[in-house]
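hiii, so i know i said id send this last week but things got crazy w the move. better late than never?? heres the sequnce for the chain we talked about at the cafe, plus the structure i predicted for it. fair warning i was half asleep when i ran it
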Amino acid sequence: MTQLERPSASRRHLLAGVGAGLSLAAAGCLGDESASITPVSLDGERACDQCGMIVEDHPGPVGQLHFEDDEPEGGRPGQFCSSVCTYTYRFDAEDEGRTPLATFLTDYSLVDQEVFEEGSDTMFSSHVESEAFSRTTDLTVVARSEVIGSMGPDLIPFGDDGDVESFVEEYGGEPMSAEDVDRGTLEAL
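okay and structure toks below
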């Protein structure tokens, strides 16, 4: 390598490093707003923003959405009685140009759920306390299991892979990243 080639290579590395640093800084700034968002409790007479059912009155996973600028009601997050309602509302909001900053679902790895039968349906208890939620970025959901939610077939979320495996062994279903859910996933339920 000649003396002239070294500065050129060093300059490319420097520019690449500066570019990467700026990209990370920008991502960090954008992520800071999202990172500071925490889930809220969905207890009381809170109605689902998708279907109108009272969130805490129904079994299964529940959810909440925090938007960049256009919260549904007086600065509170969107609140939902099921995973399906959460995703449906989110997809519709995104289609309208709104930007969700954080999506939270019940994390059945964090709670002691009760399993109960209602007729021929198997259901999990609902958990509306703020500590029961995890971000969808940290969750795996199980689709098409024997366990249903408040709106019927639902996506059952877990933060721990071992819990996912145990659930699938007992109740069947297909695990997938909660971030990979799309309208097609909901339609296939």
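btw The chain has four helices and eleven strands. thought thatd interest u
miss u guys!!
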